Automatic annotation (TrEMBL):
Originating species: Paenibacillus thiaminolyticus (Bacillus thiaminolyticus)
Region annotation (Disordered) ranges: 1-20
Transmembrane helix listed as a keyword: yes
Keywords linked to the UniProt accession: Membrane, Transmembrane, Transmembrane helix
Lineage per the UniProt record: Bacteria, Bacillati, Bacillota, Bacilli, Bacillales
Membrane-spanning ranges: 59-82
Pfam annotation, one family: DUF4179
InterPro entries associated with the record: DUF4179
Name of the protein in its database record: DUF4179 domain-containing protein
Domain DUF4179 residues, every copy: 64-131
Transmembrane found in the keyword field: yes
């Protein structure tokens, strides 16, 4: 069973919806969506096709390292004060004695910021911090900027409140949550930066502390309408909210929402969500997906059909707005880091093991082993290629482990595409040199770029028109209509092997005009076994006919598996 991601957990806590709900696993959502960049049309289209269905997974790759150190009581006791739900590797490292106690504090503007401990090795640096603004109840706080520098002033990492949402391993990230017992906030700051030798000094500065409050806006959502419903918001940086209700298999209803902004920075901070209430009480959902791309925030929530169609159901749009701001700087000065202990469990292994998939040639290049976790890098022969599998695991001595994909910068013309998988070291697994390792790839999701037939849209108007035709060997129903001067085109197939259309385009003379993808650029249609509905929008469309084409479609192969020995 997939567990809640830190994003969905935070969202539930903020909206008063905590509980043991069954949330899909979208841990890697941030890495896929934020990796999307503005490129020329051809590259952008291929990029969208390749980012829509990368699943949140945990990949485990083990090294020839034995963890046999004894934990120090001080560091081990910290396990009771930090939430290691999403960082069990940090807990494992503390328990095995790889960390060091720092316990250095600074107070400014009534807020005390403390670096409690650190873990450094040849593959990266992790700081455990806490701060106390004097709160009695949990609030939403984010730093304006967190910066690390070397003793010589050389920048190591700088994370602002926008980058916080991006979980970029190569640039570093931080996160914190409320510690109810001690009435403070505990968190992690991680970066791949490291240093030569066994010891160094590092400068840490934290600037600005911004509070965010939740604001709610009633929505007159029509449950009988299956088309896109658009609501002007004009508040909190949000221009409008586009919502669609999609009825799926097994009595499920997917409530899809997309938000447009006049300021992309706000899109990273206000985290909008649709609240469904019955008699004023928040209803439980069976799933949620969230994502951000090009200044637009999107969300998909799953409810049961009988729940959402009950009487006295109301809808609200909830979003974050800036509240109190503390304009201070917390400069910790020099932090002395030592990685001597961690060197016993740190290594970089070069593998160069080839992997052939429907995407082409790939090579498992390196393993980066550290006390808190392990990374694996997979290099592809062409830009934007990826492992086309829903499940990516590693069998280690007969034990099946899973990991998550993190954002990797891929820059430079013609550069090969690099995928990075990050996973935490399980505290109960001893890593030894003789453990057999196999990479297990399961449930292939194939991309097909060979469909060239036009889809002819006729009698385009405000009335919905439908037509059905085969895409490959799969029947696809197209529904199209105009709304507020824009052309909406929906596609859907009853065949669950069909994973969906990635994007359409209209040909006008020698030009290709791509549709704007609504909702389903979030992964889901390529992964969820019952979802394949897509919506494209052509703003300001004029005319009553169109010759439309597709770029690529997906096909699910749950029976396909591939095993790669990593010896």
């Amino acid at each position: 069973m997939s567990k809640e991601t830190r994003v969905e957990t935070d969202l539930a806590r903020r909206l008063g919806d905590e509980g043991g709900h069954d949330y899909p696993d979208f841990e890697a959502m941030w890495t896929r969506i934020d990796a999307a960049r503005q490129e020329p049309e051809g590259e952008s289209v291929r990029r969208q096709g390749r980012t829509m269905f990368l699943g949140g997974r945990r990949l485990a790759v083990l090294s020839a390292v034995a963890l046999v150190l004894i934990a120090t009581p001080v560091l081990a006791s910290m396990s009771g004060h930090w939430d290691f739900t999403f960082r069990p590797g940090v807990k494992s490292a503390l328990n095995h004695g790889f960390g060091q106690t720092i316990d250095k504090s600074v107070t400014n503007s009534g807020v005390t910021f403390t670096v409690d401990s650190a873990m450094s090795d040849d593959n990266g640096t992790t700081l455990l911090y806490s701060f106390d603004p004097g709160d009695e109840e949990p609030r939403e706080w984010r730093f304006s900027e967190v910066e690390l520098r070397t003793a010589d002033g050389e920048p190591v990492v700088k994370v602002n409140d926008v980058q916080l949402m991006r979980m970029n391993w190569k640039k570093g990230y931080y996160s914190h949550i409320w510690d109810k017992e001690n009435k403070r906030y505990n968190g992690f700051l991680e970066t791949p930066w490291t240093f030569d030798g066994k010891e160094t000094e590092l400068q840490l500065s934290v600037r600005g502390l911004q509070e965010y409050n939740t604001k709610r806006l009633p929505l007159a959502l029509d449950l009988a309408e299956t088309g896109v419903q658009t609501f002007p918001v004009q508040d909190g940086g949000i221009e409008s909210a586009s919502i669609q209700i999609s009825r799926e298999a097994e009595g499920k209803v997917v409530l899809k929402s997309l938000y447009t902004y006049w300021d992309e920075r706000i899109a990273n901070t206000n985290l909008p969500a649709i609240l469904v209430k019955k008699d004023g009480k928040l209803m439980k959902r069976s799933g949620i997906r969230v994502g951000l791309d090009n200044g637009k925030w999107a969300e998909q929530e799953i409810y049961q059909l009988d729940d959402i169609h009950q009487q006295n159901i109301t809808f609200e749009l909830a979003y974050m707005t800036p509240g109190k701001k503390i304009d201070g700087e917390w400069n910790l000065g020099m932090l002395r880091l030592n990685k001597e202990k961690a060197l016993h469990a740190s290594a970089i292994r070069t593998l160069d093991v080839p992997v052939r998939t429907t995407e082409g040639e790939a090579v498992v290049r390196k393993l980066f082993i550290r006390p808190t976790g392990i990374r694996v890098e997979i290099e592809h022969g062409s830009p934007y290629s990826r492992l086309p599998y829903k499940g990516v695991y590693l069998s280690v001595g007969g034990r099946k482990l899973e990991g998550e994909e993190w954002l990797t910068d891929n820059t430079g013309d013609g550069s090969n595409y690099l995928q990075t998988y990050v996973f935490d070291a399980p505290p109960d697994l001893r890593l030894t040199a003789d453990l057999p390792m196999e990479l297990l790839l399961q449930y292939e999701v194939e991309e097909r770029w060979d469909y060239r037939q036009p889809i002819l849209l006729s009698n385009i108007s405000g009335e919905k028109q439908t037509l059905t035709m085969d895409v490959g060997e799969y029947p696809v129903t197209w529904t199209y209509y105009k709304q507020n001067g824009d052309l909406y085109v929906e596609s859907e197939s009853p065949d669950e092997r069909f994973g969906g259309i990635n994007q359409t385009f209209i040909r006008q003379e020698d030009r290709r005009i791509p549709g704007h993808i609504l909702f389903d650029w979030i992964p889901g249609a390529g992964l969820n076994d019952s979802l394949n509905k897509r919506v494209d929008v052509y703003p300001g469309f004029e005319g009553t006919e169109a010759e439309m084409y597709i770029f690529m479609y997906l096909v699910r192969h749950p029976e396909r598996e591939l095993t790669v020995k990593l010896q």
